[in-house]
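Predict structure. Chain length: 591.
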Amino acid sequence: MPEPKQSGPQDFTAGGSSAHPDVAEIELVRKILNIFANAVSASRLYPPEHQTVADFVSLLYEHLRTFLQSHWKLELGVEETAFTYKGERVYEDPHPVRSLPFFFSKDGLQALFFYQGLQKEEVGEFLKTIRHVSLLPPEEADIVNALWEKDLANIRYLAPDDYLETKIGVGRPPLAVTVDRMELNRGKIKLEPDDLSALQESLAQTALAGVSRSNLEQVLLPADNLLAGLPEEDTTREVESLLLSNRNLSPHEEYLNLIIEIIYHEDRTDQFPAIAEVLEQYHQDALDRLDFGRATSLLQSLREMEAALVEKDAVKARVISDLINELTQEAALSRLKEKQDLVSEREKQALLDYLKIVGPSAAEISADLFEKWTDPDLRRQLHEILDRIGKADIEALMRAAQDSRPESTKAVIGILSRIQDRRIAPFLAKFVSSRHPSVKIEAVRALARIEDRAAGRILLNYIAAPEGPVRLAALKHLPADREGSLEDSILRLVSEKSFLKKDPEEIEAFFGVLSRSNSADGCRVLRRFMLQGSLFPQPKLLGIRMSAAHALARMSRPEATEALRAGAACRTKKIRQVCRQALREKNAESG
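Prediction complete.
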C-alpha cells in the first residue's frame, strides 16, 4: 500500500523529519538495516520454509518491534546506493548488482515505512516478496508492483504518482489517513475474547506467559505495567543477563555465526557455491570497510571448522579449504592494497592479526607495510609474518622482494638466508643490479650463509659491483672452500694493471681470498707482490707488500714458508720484520 503524499511544497523528506536523531537511535536503525540486508541474503539463498530464513525473520521482527514501541513509525529514505534516516545515511552499498537500496530505487520507490502494529507474518511476507521479485527476469521484476499487490497493512512505501498510475492503475485514489497521536496515546485497547486467547498463545514462550487473562489489558497499557507477571527475581536476572550478552553481538557477528552454523550442518554440496558467494561478499565488504576484525573472525571460523571436519567429513573439509583459498588469494586482497594508506593507528593491530591468518598471499602487502610503517613493534610483527610466509611458501616470499622496497627487501633476504633451499642463490643473483648498495650487501651476506657452490659463483658478480663497499663485502664473504674456477677468477683480477689502483682495504681483502685458498698459485702471486720493490719510497706500495706478507703468514703450504724466508732476507726492513716474526710463529707451532 503506497504512503499517501502530504500536501504542501515539501511533501516528503527522505528518511523522515529533519530533526537530527540521537546516536542511540541512529545505531538502532543501522542495526535493523544490517539485519535486513542479511535476512534478504538468506532469503535469496534458501526457500522461505528453511530454518535459517525463519531465524532471520524473527531477528528482524524483534528489532523492528523494539524500535516501533518507542517511535511509532520507522521511515526510511531510499536512494540509489543508500538508505537514509532523518536525512542521515545509515546503510550504504555501492555495488548495483547486489545493492539492496538499488533493488528498491530502480523501480521508483523513494521511501519505506514500518508502523507500530507490525506483525511477524508481515515481515515474512515482505522478505518472500523481495525474494520472488529478485528471482524474476529483469524485465519482469518490479518491487513496487509486487508490494502494491501484497498490500501489507503495516509496511508501506512511497513511489512517484506517475509511476503508480502507469504501473499500478489509473485513477486509484490514495488512502487518506489522519492520525491524532495525542488522542492515540490516551486511548485504551479493548480486547475481544478471541483476541485475548490469541495474544496469550503468542506470549506463551515469553516472560509474559504467566500473565492472567484478566490482567492482559493492564500489562499492555500503560507502559508502567509492562513488568507485571514477570518470573521470580533470580530467573529474571538470568534472563536479563542472557539478553544483554546476546545484544552485545553485532549484526555482522550474528550473521557470521549463523552462516557458519549453516555450513557445518549443510549436507547438500550443491548449496556450497551459493554459500561461498555470500561469504565472499561478506569478506570483501569487511575489507572495503577496513573492518579487519570481522574478516579475521570469518577466516578463523572457517579454519576451525576445517580442522574439526578433516576426520569426520573429508569432502566438506576440502570444500571449506577451497573456500579459504578463494577468500585469501592475492586477487581478493588487491583492493585492500589500494586502501592500506587509509588504515588508522588504532586499526593497524587488527590489520596485522588479519594478515597473520591470511597466509602466503599476504606477502606483498606485508612487505608494503614494512616499508611504510616505522614503529619498531609493528615492524617486528610484520617480520614475523614474512618469516612465517617463507616457511609456508618460499616463492610467495620471493615475490615480495622488490627493489622499490629496499627496507622490506633486506628483511626478506635475511629470512631467505636462513632457509636452505636451492632456489635462493639464483634468486639473490638478481640484486646485483639493485639501485641500493645496502640491498646488495644484504644479498652478499645471505649468499655467504648458503651452503651451495652456486652461491660462490654468484658472489663473483658482486665483486665486480661499482660500489666499493659492496665489492669489499663480497670479497670478505667469499667462502673458503671453493672450486678452482673461483680462484682463477680472483687470480685474473689481481693480475690486471688496474689492481694497484684499488683501495688498500679492498686489495687486502683480495689477498685474504688468496690466503684462504691456500693454493700454490695463490702463494706465487702473493710472493710476487711482497717482493715487488721500488727505487723510491712509496707508502701505498709498501702497504700492499705488507698485506701480501701477512696473507702468506696465514697460509700453511711449504711454498708460503719459502716465500717468507725470501722476504726475511729482502732489503725492506718492515717486510723483513713481518716475515721473520711469521717464521718464528710457524717454527713454534711445528716444534
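Summary: Residues 337 and 365 are 6 Å apart (CA to CA).
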